[in-house]
């Protein structure tokens, strides 16, 4: 656990970069510092590995004040990733990745072999290890920056705008891979970005900072979107924050059982009477949803044929985004959104009101002990 306690940083020229800031970054989670340029994010990050020493206040890692630790030892436990990867241009990629272990005395051959494993871990062909940084794309260089920070297997990672030097498509790929990697490695991460979408996507906790080095709000992404603390935070989150909340996954929406009728079958009298609002869901023999019918308007024999089906718009999947679940419910003629599993087999239906309830319910902190600042 990284703890900043009332830290203030005033540069020698008088600039007050960070002002009495307190923050706790929990173990094995991603804490993101986000805010406009010049608000003190980088200064805050650099106080954690002592590249900047606060004018007042304290920083501790797992309860130990970092000022009482040997600086070299402190930094050995902290991986540091910066924009553009910060690679040495005159060293090969694998030599770059192996730089810290070699510095720490790992035999060169062993360090290089480990470097090639790390390249694979971050999604690169180990053969790229023989190239020089300038022979790689921006996205590849960024991945190598991450591999290098991981080389000494530090429990803590500090990342300063690690994905901002690449185009949006590559950036999205890097973010996805980073989340996959973190799920596997469980590092304690503090990351800086100026991009609120990135903060919301990657952060377990997000600190929104304002110019002058103060925290406007420290919360989980859902709480931020649902309840911005003040006008500054709301403004920084932007007008489409409700829309962003819909990007979260729909894993915990209630799925209701739905009575169905098979294509080609006849709708029983019972179903005609029982169908909610008169709409019944038609499925194929493998229980893939085909569309909705209103049994009340079928011919007397009640047989279901494809021509009579009203198709809903979207199908939702259980782990997919809330946006899709909401769309499925609103575009369905029965107003019940059809939810399928990964194979497209019917699981049940969801209601728009319950999708909105899920967004609301996620405002409540899941881990109040982790909140700080
Ligand atoms: P951010 O990362 O949010 O862009 P920084 O931490 O880099 O913000 O900077 C915060 C403030 O401190 C800015 O006003 C910046 O100009 C100033 N600053 C940063 N580094 C120095 C320095 N070495 N000397 C003087 N002022 C600095």
List the topology elements.
Elements: E1 2-10, E2 16-25, E3 30-34, H1 41-48, E4 56-61, E5 64-65, H2 71-76, E6 78-82, H3 93-97, H4 99-103, H5 108-121, H6 138-150, E7 156-160, H7 168-185, E8 188-193, H8 196-202, E9 205-210, E10 214-219, H9 221-226, H10 231-237, H11 241-245, E11 260-262, H12 269-274, E12 280-283, E13 289-293, E14 316-317, H13 322-331, E15 336-340, E16 346-351, H14 352-361
Parallel strand pairs: 3-8, 3-9, 6-7, 7-8, 11-12, 14-15
Antiparallel strand pairs: 1-2, 1-4, 4-5, 9-10, 12-13, 15-16
The structure holds adenosine-5'-diphosphate (ADP).
Helix content: 25-40%
Radius of gyration: 26 Å
H/I helix tally? 14
CATH homologous superfamily title of the largest domain: P-loop containing nucleotide triphosphate hydrolases
Q: Which strands sit side by side, in order, in the main sheet?
A: 6-7-8-3-9-10
Largest sheet: 6 strands, mixed
Overall form = elongated
How is the CATH topology of the largest domain named? Rossmann fold
Instruction: Give the name of the CATH architecture of the largest domain.
Output: 3-Layer(aba) Sandwich
Unreliable stretches (pLDDT < 50, length at least 5) are 364-373
Question: What is bound: which ligands?
Answer: adenosine-5'-diphosphate
By oligomeric state, this entry counts as single chain
